[in-house]
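Appendix C: a fully annotated inverse folding record. The material below is reproduced so that readers can follow the format used throughout the book. The structure is listed first as tokens, followed by the designed sequence.
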């Protein structure tokens, strides 16, 4: 960072020459010419003139000290060297922040640096706030921020420090709740989960399940857990989730009710959704039948419990009849 305080020159050397001239002038005006022999004698007032010169020097030095105050760095105007923009954001601090976490060999923040970065932010690398931050940084890959992504991302959220980023989280979470913003975040999440180095075009099933659960953190659809259970059980042998399936699932959660009653196979849904709806309706049917079976068993149990009491009453009644008949 460049120096912004201009150092003042020491004025003592210039004061020395000025006081010398004044002392000579004082002596020349204090000499008295003798009338008898033209012999000049120095006036007895010369010592007092010298004292006046010293006082003058002291007074002048005091004036210079007062007129040249030291400028505090805390009160000075920001320097252009700091790279501040119109709103006080420091580009230099952003660059320094990136350098603190970047890899030693690659010009990017990688897994180890990302872990330290998240620790300093007091967030879990696998939580929703980190996903939102990656979205604002437009990160191309998980566990990695390039220099451009980090710098442009910090500029986008108007933060140049750890404290500044932390203070922006509430606003970022609120921003992500907007319909269009969430749609953008949702589509970003698919690309974010791909392994760019491997040239992947579809998400691995386990990765997709984790990302679906993560991206719906703030607003979870009722059908989500059933969908994830379906993928985990994997009755159709799904190996990966395509971009089209990922994008259409958001439409599915918005258009189809939790009871699936308005789902139609005639509409242009991915075939995986047809399988899911069939699987889910069959699962619900089994649950209903199981619940009905339990109910019937409970009713049957109560009937069987009541029967012995009735038999005992009938037996006792017959015995009584025999006894009275005997009399």
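Designed amino acids, in order:
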């Amino acid at each position: 960072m460049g120096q912004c305080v201009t150092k003042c020159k020491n004025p003592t050397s210039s004061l020395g020459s000025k006081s010398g001239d004044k002392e000579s002038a004082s002596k020349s005006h204090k000499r008295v010419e003798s009338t008898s022999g033209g012999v000049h004698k120095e006036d007895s007032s010369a010592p007092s003139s010298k004292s006046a010169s010293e006082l003058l020097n002291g007074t002048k030095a005091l004036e210079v000290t007062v007129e040249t105050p030291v400028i505090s760095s805390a009160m000075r105007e920001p320097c252009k060297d700091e790279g501040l923009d119109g709103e006080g954001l420091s580009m230099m601090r952003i660059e320094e922040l990136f350098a603190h976490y970047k890899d030693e060999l690659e010009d990017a923040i990688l897994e180890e640096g990302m872990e330290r970065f998240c620790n300093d932010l007091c967030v879990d690398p696998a939580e929703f706030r980190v996903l939102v931050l990656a979205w604002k940084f437009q990160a191309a890959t998980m566990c990695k921020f390039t220099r451009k992504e980090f710098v442009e991302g910090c500029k986008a959220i108007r933060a140049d420090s750890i404290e500044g980023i932390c203070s922006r989280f509430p606003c970022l979470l609120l921003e992500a709740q907007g319909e269009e913003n969430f749609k953008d975040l949702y589509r970003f999440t698919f690309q974010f989960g791909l392994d760019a180095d491997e040239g992947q075009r579809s998400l691995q099933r386990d990765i997709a399940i984790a990302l679906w659960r993560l991206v719906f953190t703030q607003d979870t659809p009722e059908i989500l857990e059933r969908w994830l259970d379906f993928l985990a059980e994997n009755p159709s042998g799904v190996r990966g989730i395509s971009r089209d399936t990922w994008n259409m699932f958001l439409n599915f959660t918005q258009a189809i009710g939790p009871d699936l009653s308005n789902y139609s196979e005639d509409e242009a849904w991915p075939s995986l959704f047809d399988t899911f709806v069939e699987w889910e309706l069959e699962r619900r049917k089994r649950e209903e039948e199981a619940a009905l079976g339990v109910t019937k068993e409970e009713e049957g149990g109560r009937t069987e419990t009541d029967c012995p009491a009735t038999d005992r009453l009938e037996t006792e009644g017959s015995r009584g009849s025999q006894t009275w008949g005997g009399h």
